[in-house]
Amino acid sequence: MKKASKQLLAIGAVLSLGLVISTTPASATISKPAPEKPGKPSGDAGTDKPTTTTHVDISLEASDNKITLVDSPTIDFKGTKIVAGKMNLTTNSIKDNLRVFNPGKADGYGVTARIAAFKDKSVANSEDSLKGARMTLKDRVITAEDTNNQSKAPIGEENVELNGDDKNVMTAKPGTGLGIFRLTYKDAMLEIPDGNKPGTYGTVITWTLTEAPKSN
């Protein structure tokens, strides 16, 4: 929850015009000041430049919300006929992107990815897998959702070869990655070694966000 307060302070300028009093030994007279020429005010009136100022304060309280991983990409490889020998396939399409929402937490965070084995989906409960397959995410781009975002962007590896271990794909060092950032891969490659069988294979990529521990 955000609280905002505003304080307005107006400073007025006081202008004073006094009468000139002159005295002589013989008698006392009160005379008006000699008239000035137009455009040349007398006294302080010709030099004062009245101003006013406004003070504005706003309080941004720390949010109770955590850093969250909102979306993830969908990756599809176009079907092809199996051949003898190693096959290198490029992605048919990558839809959506990875999005991280950070409500101003400056401790940093990291995002990792791991991939499970490609299982044959064409046969129910099949234990057949795409043996030795290696998938690489390529041409990484990290951008802020707000083009005027004032925070330094997170960093990440240009290309990431996935396996069963968590691989770093995006890291926000302390003081960076505030706001909403998107991680996009323009391409992906699937390397299939020789010796596999035909089938319709599928797998799951697991993306994990970890907040950096707070400093003492």
UniProtKB/TrEMBL annotation:
The lineage of its organism: Bacteria, Bacillati, Bacillota, Bacilli, Lactobacillales. The keyword Signal applies. It comes from Lactiplantibacillus nangangensis. Residues 1-28 form the signal peptide. This is WxL domain-containing protein. The keyword Signal applies. Keywords: Signal. Pfam families: WxL. Residues 31-213 form the WxL domain. Coiled coil: none annotated. Residues 28-53 are annotated as: Disordered.
